[in-house]
Amino acid sequence: MKATPAHQALLMQLQKLDTEIAQLNHKLKTLPEHEQITAIHTRLENAAVELKVVETELEDVTIDLRRSEVDVEAVSARMEKDEKRLNAGLGTPKELEQTQHELATLAKRKAELEDGELEIMMRHEAVKKRVDELKSDEEGLKTLELELNVRIENATTEINALIARAAEDRMKLAPQIDSALVETYEKIRQGQAGVGAALLIGNKCDGCHLVINAIELERIKTLVDDDVLRCEECRRILVRI
Ligand SMILES: [Zn+2]
User: What does pTM read for this prediction?
Assistant: First the structure.
């Protein structure tokens, strides 16, 4: 195949644009924010599961707390009634003695209930704190997700603009190059990770980075500038500089 050195140089420019477009597309797909958002979703899901469990626990503990308060109130009311009767000196001495005895039992019961109530209150507080923490985490994560989405949107707009610019440059450039050369380049590019043409730098192909053997190098020296070279290893178009 033949192509002037000028066309071969333009082909290298085309390759540069294609590489740039490929890199930009890759960047678009691998924005770190995508991974961060995935991590946030996992955390939100876990938090939601825990929140459901803890909220149910909070409901249970709240009921326990009410029940315990009612128990303490009942004993207090009973004690008040007994104390009034005792203070008024109502009843026979035996009855009064019985009331006194009952009062002592009630006081002991009340102390026990109050201890229990205190324990439930502490548990209630701890569970409520966890609910608040989880809700606050959830809120923070959602805010972060919104921020990340804005960042993705901005980065995407920016990258897409760069892709559009490179694509436009490519559209202008491609028709200036020998069509058979471009066609060959396109065919090679498909099977070679988007790289169809590479420079010959020293004795190395810049596409596959392998050394061209001495015999081939000698042969290349005998070729005219219009001869289009191909790397023996990767088959890419090899452009001399
Ligand atoms: Zn090569």
Answer: 0.75
**CA 231 to ligand 1 centroid distance, Å:** 5
The phi and psi torsions of 205 (rounded to 5 degrees) equal: -85, 125
Residue 169 lies in a domain: no
Domain identity same for 99 and 192? no
Ligand 1 center–CA 208 separation, angstroms: 4
How many domains, in total, are found in the chain?
2
Phi, psi of 87 (to 5 degrees): -65, -35
Q: What are phi and psi of 201, to 5 degrees?
A: -110, 115
How many whole angstroms from 209 Cα to the centroid of ligand 1?
A: 6
Q: Considering the domain boundaries, does residue 60 fall inside one?
A: yes
pLDDT digits (tens, 9 = 90+) for 35-62: 999 999 999 999 999 999 999 999 999 9
Residues 71, 182, single domain; the answer is no
Model confidence at 219: pLDDT above 90: yes
Give me the chain's average pLDDT, please: 96
Same domain, 76 and 159: yes
